[in-house]
Model the fold of this input.
Amino acid sequence: MFTRKSKALAAVLFLCCAFPLHMRAQVPPQRPTSTPYAGDLSIFEYPDRDKRLHIDRVISLLGIVPGKNVADIGAGSGWFTVRAAARVAPGGTVYAEDINPQAIDFITQRAAREKLSNIRPLLGSVDDTKLPANSVDAVLILKTYHEFAHPIPLMRQLRPALRPGAKIGIIDRFGSGADHGIMPEVVIREMAQAGYNRLARYSFTRSDGQDYFLIFAAR
Done:
């Protein structure tokens, strides 16, 4: 009788025999990613950021209105979180997700200070946002997609949290992945692999640098 350990060993031996050494050496590495920011969170609070990102238009295109639930993935200082929280009140909730515990503490304190009781800070992991099932109507990933170490598994794990018709917005800048930016074609390809269709692409956010805005929905 095969044990779990012996089955695993047999699988490894099969793979080693099935693929010659020269072929195994050519397995492409994971695409470059940027190190997640862990510094002073106040740098995201510069005065004209709303205007440069046209955040009101972003919010409208994602269908964020009173009563809706929103996820801010990679929330950082909560810059978008607090704006979404104001927009979805009354009755709506904003999940402020980040993998940095310091960011979660920062947002928790900020929500208390600004008396925003509809913000739910959420500590995620590199492979899972930890959002509850069927919990959100819209998602924004604001200049953090290039930091995702495992983008395809992460976005697959996100799907059960999405309500019918949910939109996922991604704002990022052009780059190599390792320079705090990523090309939109890479994002579109990875999102397709994770099970999403692109709904729209906009360039009006470019006044904040070289940013683009993509909107997706689950297939």
User: Anything to note?
Assistant: The helical segments are 4-18, 21-24, 49-53, 55-61, 79-88, 101-113, 151-158, 184-193. Residues 33 and 177 are 5 Å apart (CA to CA). The beta strands are 69-73, 93-98, 119-123, 136-142, 162-173, 196-202, 211-218. DSSP finds eight helices and seven strands in the chain.
